[in-house]
Amino acid sequence: MAVSYKLIPSINPGSRDKKKVLLRPSVVINEIITPDVFLEKFSQYKRFSKANIVHFMYSLQEFLLQELKEGNIVQTGAIGTFFPLVTTKKEKTKGAKNTISNNFEFGINYRPSLEMKKEIVGAELERITA
Fold first, then answer.
1. Which runs of E-coded beta strand occur in 80-124?
2. DSSP states of 23-85 as a string?
3. Which long-range contacts (CB under 8 A, 24 or more apart) does 98-103 make?
4. Helix, strand, or coil here: 129?
5. In the sheet that 99-112 helps form, which strands lie side by side, from edge to edge?
């Protein structure tokens, strides 16, 4: 099955010519795989029991969070790399423009493996005209 996309209009915010409309590709989402559907499909695909998959997923989450909270980068190999990220919160006040406060947020960044990138680049694309 091919990945479907369509071209949708997008106004260039940096352009002075408001009449010029650019087209950008947008993926057409077929369905959202819920956790229950994920477990059902994956257990049939790899012959793991649903309980084992759930246990593994929660164990992986717990392990990743623990390592990331310690400031470690986790390279999983097949899935990719997870690393901690710190950003600043922008607060809007009535009297000033966007100001950066001393409030920092901790986050998680993910970079897929090269194998995953190569596989997804090779996916078939099908344009939908609407």
1. 80-91, 99-112
2. EEEEE-------HHHHHHHHHHHH---HHHHHHHHHHHHHHHHHHHHTT--EE-SSSEEEEEE
3. none
4. coil
5. 74-75, 80-91, 99-112
Q: Determine the Cα–Cα distance for residues 54 and 59; give it in Å rounded to an integer.
A: 8
pTM given for the model: 0.67
**pLDDT one-digit tens code per residue, 16-63:** 666 677 888 899 998 899 999 999 989 988 888 999 999 999 999 999
Residues contacting 92, CB < 8 A, separation 6+? 98, 99
Distance (Å, rounded) from C-alpha 80 to C-alpha 111?
A: 6
Both tokens of 58, joined, read 């929660």
Do 85 and 109 touch, CB atoms closer than 8 A? yes
Per-residue tokens: 23: 């087209």
Could you tell me the two tokens for 41? 């499909």
Residue with tokens 């989450």: 61
